[in-house]
Amino acid sequence: MFDLEAYLARTRLPLAPTPDAEGLAILQRAHRLAIPFENLDIALGRGIAIDSDSVFAKLVQSQRGGYCFEHGRLFLDALEALGFEARPLLARVWLGGGDEVPPQTHTLALVTIDGQQWIADAGFGAAYSPPMPLSDGEEADAPDGARFRLARDPVFGWMLSRNGDPATTDGRIDAAAEGRGWQRQCSFTLDPVYPNDLILANHWVSTAAESRFVQHRIVSGVLPHGFAGLTDTRYHRRNGEQATEAEITDPRVYRMRLSMMFGIDLSAEEAAMLVGLQAA
User: Fold this and answer.
1) 268, 257, 277: which is closest to 42 by C-alpha?
2) Is 121 tagged catalytic?
3) Of 122, 134, 112, 113, which Cα lies nearest the Cα of 28?
4) Which of 77, 121, 165, 232 is catalytic?
5) Which CATH number belongs to the domain containing residue 91 in this structure?
6) Which domain holds residue 262?
7) Across the strands, what pairs with 90?
8) What are phi and psi of 134, to 5 degrees?
9) Hey, how many other C-beta atoms are within 10 angstroms of the C-beta on 133?
10) Are 144 and 130 in contact (CB under 8 A)?
């Protein structure tokens, strides 16, 4: 049984959201504000389990974060407990990449409310996109000032694009080279996604040498009007007009930043290992 009370406490929600469009927006926003995105267990030599019990134990009971397959599982379980009709989708992440077709390394939720389909993404670690009705040409604004647009794509099904400040992403967009303007964020189809599809995608993302999550140590969090990220030892934070950027090579500062900014508490040995990987 899903412990809804513990999940609501973790996401700092005093009341359970209603199973409607407003409730979906409230739930996703609270989830992203409270639970960080991170892949640190990969670098620490631990596997990433995405079954409901393991994800709940890590993200809720142990106060850790996770990456998209972990967030996606927890969010779907919460949606079900609240009475929403929802299922997972697989997506290709284009943000910050080139023209080469990316693999399906991301998951988001398709939610049906009163016959209308919505997309909701509680696990996209590179930026924050609000829930949106699945409609060609639909646009929505995020609290950090970015604008999002959904469009049918003749090859990839649906394409979600972003127009916003690169400073409110995880840093994969080069602000000098890209600037503002519409950027492809992710594409997806509405094909059914089965548990083994997610298991296979999660395995590749957490073990393949080509995976961004094997190559880098990534932590990010949504702020009320911005975004904070720690990629390897590069820290950056943007909230409204206030911005901070720094290189963190001292394990003690790295550990403190993880705790104070993202609520992730690691041992001194774990922090030293993560900083040392970058130095090597």
Assistant:
1) 277
2) yes
3) 122
4) 121
5) 3.30.2140.20
6) 4-279
7) 107
8) -80, 90
9) 14
10) no
CA-based torsion, 97, 228, 267, 275: positive or negative: positive
Secondary structure element (H or E) that encloses residue 227, with its range: strand 226-231
Annotated active-site residue in 31, 71, 77, 106 = 106
Amino acid at 57: A
| Interatomic CA distance for residues 210 and 82, integer angstroms | 38
Q: What is the pLDDT of residues 198-246, one digit of tens each?
A: 999 999 999 999 999 999 999 999 999 999 999 999 999 998 888 999 9
**Torsion 133-135-139-144 (CA) sign:** positive
Torsion of the alpha carbons at 126, 128, 134 and 138, rounded to the nearest 10: -110
Catalytic, 68? Answer yes
pLDDT band at 279 (very low <50, low <70, confident <90, very high): low
**Is 216 among the residues known to form the active site?**
no
Q: State the pTM of this model.
A: 0.95
Q: How many domains does the chain have?
A: 1
Say if residues 19 and 248 touch (Cβ distance below 8 Å).
no
List 31, 68, 165, 186, catalytic entry: 68
For residues 163 and 181, is the Cβ–Cβ distance under 8 A? yes
Q: What percent of the chain has pLDDT over 70?
A: 96
Contact 24, 111 (CB under 8 A): yes
All residues at 6 or more sequence positions from 46 whose CB lies less than 8 Å from its CB, including other chains: none
CA 278, distance to chain mean position in Å, is 23
For helices 68-81 and 195-207, angle between their N-to-C axes, nearest 10 degrees: 150
What is the pairing mode between strands 116-120 and 104-113? antiparallel
| Phi, psi angle pair for 70, to nearest 5° | -75, -50
Distance separating alpha carbons of residues 73 and 223, to the nearest angstrom: 22
